[in-house]
Amino acid sequence: MAEEKEMQFEQAMQQLEEIVQKLEAGEAPLEDTITLYQQGMELSAYCQKKLQNAEKQLIRMMDKDGNETPFDPTAGEPNE
Hints:
Number of helices: 2
Strand content: under 5%
Distance between the termini: 27 Å
Helix content: 55-70%
């Protein structure tokens, strides 16, 4: 594994929602606002990447005729 423990998508979304709420409140000092914005952008990119990877997995599970193919999560690509 590249990382010891990877953040779950749901955790990242929850953190992103909390950051958005803080930014929308508009009560944080400028320096904190910049830091929160930067963290939010990083979390947003992370979530987008996770969603794209999930979409790719789903596409690989379908063959060219639209039929489902057996999915082995330990394999890189399904058998053709």
